[in-house]
């Protein structure tokens, strides 16, 4: 009888401790100072628009976006903690409307001549030199004279890209009146259109062409590359005046990345020269 009472007392004691511990645990879980509490990120997010433009923005097979634009976004996030820069996907054709609607207030590697002439926003130079060269099938072109005249030659255009030889025109109907255009979706498709003889000439971003030939060295001897560039550009960062970011801070952070050599290091990984 005594043993049974002792068991009951022990059971009641253990039960009481369990209830008390649970109450304390619940109280801790509600406490704002609890160790596992997720504190919301209170710093502003600056959305950075970007579209597939190799090697600046590349869409991988697993759906991830990579490239120099993403690398610079990461570098900007590492050099300061006042704002968080976040990549936002857009398309080459719809980026103007998306920018006007405020889907993002910043773009990296844009050029005032690429349809932004009427935008009175801030352009911040990155001092990275790139551009477009022409390519053709060596068996057909033979020498550099082939690039001097585009008459009666089919030309591969990446839809939405601005080329100097076409006076930066992107309208398909207008381009069809001046050239024999073949519209493709990206730089790789431009190169493939030449190799497969679907087009005679293609302007290709120089940095991407170097990357492509590094990965596909067997194609180098098949292509003739123009000595003269269609255009050489020093693209920069477009920042909207409507952004919550102080217009003086972004140039300062970019300059820090220039001064510490980070921008030049990132550019070199993609075969892009820094002018600083």
From TrEMBL:
SUPFAM superfamilies per UniProt: Periplasmic binding protein-like II
Signal peptide (from-to): 1-25
Alphabetical keyword list: Signal
Superkingdom of origin: Bacteria
Keyword Signal: yes
Protein name: Uncharacterized protein
Organism: Shewanella baltica (strain OS155 / ATCC BAA-1091)
């Amino acid at each position: 009888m005594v043993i049974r009472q002792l068991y009951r007392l022990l059971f009641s004691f253990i039960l009481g401790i369990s209830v008390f511990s649970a109450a304390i645990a619940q109280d801790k879980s509600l406490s704002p100072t609890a160790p596992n509490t997720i504190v919301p990120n209170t710093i502003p997010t600056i959305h950075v628009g970007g579209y597939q433009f190799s090697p600046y923005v590349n869409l991988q097979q697993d759906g991830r976006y990579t490239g120099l634009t993403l690398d610079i976004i990461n570098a900007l996030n590492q050099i300061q903690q006042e704002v968080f820069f976040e990549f936002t996907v857009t398309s080459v054709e719809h980026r103007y409307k998306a920018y006007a609607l405020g889907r993002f207030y910043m773009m990296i590697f844009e050029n005032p001549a690429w349809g932004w002439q009427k935008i009175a926003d801030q352009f911040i130079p990155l001092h990275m030199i790139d551009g477009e060269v022409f390519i053709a099938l060596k068996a057909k072109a033979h020498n550099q004279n082939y690039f001097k005249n585009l008459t009666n030659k089919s030309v591969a255009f990446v839809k939405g890209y601005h080329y100097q030889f076409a006076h930066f025109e992107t309208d398909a109907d207008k381009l069809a009146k001046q050239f024999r255009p073949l519209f493709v979706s990206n730089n790789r498709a431009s190169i493939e259109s030449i190799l497969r003889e679907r087009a005679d000439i293609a302007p290709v971003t120089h940095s991407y062409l170097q990357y492509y030939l590094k990965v596909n060295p067997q194609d180098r001897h098949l292509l003739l590359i123009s000595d003269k560039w269609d255009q050489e550009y020093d693209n920069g960062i477009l920042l909207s005046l409507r952004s919550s970011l102080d217009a003086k801070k972004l140039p300062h952070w970019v300059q820090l990345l220039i001064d510490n050599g980070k921008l030049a290091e990132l550019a070199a990984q993609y075969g892009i020269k820094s002018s600083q």
